[in-house]
């Protein structure tokens, strides 16, 4: 699928409350050639390549473009991908700490079984992206723009959505632990199927999201504190 070809699955009305569902990517990779260059290059152009178990630790691919690529089992410790564009691609089993994807663009991407920590995605643009399985600690999405994004079956530990804009984003069978929603803007965000929903900051910014009745009960103490309501038993 070429540039702009990521049509995504059609959206449409969601279940209940008229919340719109996210459009998922439809990635169809062509026959891939193995990556043989050894190291990434800033502003590099990578098209139709398979990166298999490459150690990209500390390498600089800032501003690079990846189209119709597959990254499988790659090490991304401190890999610099600032301002990179990842299009119509699949990342399976990436691992690493401190990967820099700040201000990058991910469009029509599947990220599967990641084991990452301290990923910098602040100011990034994610469109038609599925993040499935795995665990990501301290994900930095401050001021990022997410549209048609699905978090599915994954664990997010202390994700920071501060100042981000989320539109048609779904959390399905995943755990949000210690999420920061400070200053976030939500439109058609479906949290009802999140397996765990723990919001430490920004609970007052949930307008534009839909939650389940049981989640409302779980969040009641935090919501009460946010609006200054004291809850005490009658004497």
What does this 3D model show about the protein?
The chain has 235 residues and is mostly beta strands. 6% of the residues lie in helices and 39% in strands. The chain is built from 1 helix and 16 strands. The chain has a 16-stranded parallel β-sheet that branches. The longest helix has 14 residues, at 213-226. The N and C termini lie far apart (67 Å). InterPro entries: 5peptide_repeat, Pentapeptide-BTB/POZ_domain. It comes from Streptomyces machairae. Residues 1-17 have a biased composition (Gly residues).
SSE string, helices as H and strands as E: EEEEEEEEEEEEEEEEH
> Sheet with the most strands?
16 strands, parallel
Strand content: 35-45%
Shape by Cα distribution: elongated
Task: Give the radius of gyration.
Answer: 19 Å
Low-confidence stretches: 1-16
| Helix fraction by DSSP (H/I, runs of at least 4) | under 10%
Structural class category: mainly beta
Euclidean distance between termini CA atoms: 67 Å
User: How many DSSP E strands?
Assistant: 16
Please count the helical segments. Answer: 1
Q: Could you tell me the mean pLDDT?
A: 92
């Amino acid at each position: 699928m070429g540039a702009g070809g990521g049509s995504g699955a059609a959206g449409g009305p969601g279940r209940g409350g008229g919340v719109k569902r996210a459009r998922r990517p439809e990635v169809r990779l062509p026959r891939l050639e193995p990556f043989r260059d050894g190291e990434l290059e800033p502003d590099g152009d990578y098209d139709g390549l398979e990166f298999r178990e490459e150690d990209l630790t500390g390498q600089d691919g800032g501003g690079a473009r990846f189209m119709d690529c597959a990254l499988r089992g790659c090490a991304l410790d401190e890999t610099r991908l600032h301002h990179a564009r990842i299009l119509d691609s699949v990342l399976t089993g990436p691992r690493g700490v401190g990967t820099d994807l700040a201000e990058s663009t991910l469009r029509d991407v599947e990220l599967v079984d990641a084991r990452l920590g301290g990923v910098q995605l602040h100011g990034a643009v994610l469109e038609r992206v599925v993040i499935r399985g795995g665990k990501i600690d301290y994900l930095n999405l401050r001021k990022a723009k997410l549209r048609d994004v699905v978090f599915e079956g994954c664990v997010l530990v202390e994700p920071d959505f501060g100042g981000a804009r989320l539109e048609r984003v779904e959390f399905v069978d995943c755990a949000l632990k210690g999420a920061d929603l400070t200053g976030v803007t939500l439109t058609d965000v479906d949290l009802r199927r999140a397996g765990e929903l723990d919001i430490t900051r920004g609970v007052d910014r949930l307008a534009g999201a839909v939650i389940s009745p049981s989640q409302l009960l779980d969040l009641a103490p935090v919501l009460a504190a946010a609006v200054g309501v004291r809850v005490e038993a009658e004497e």
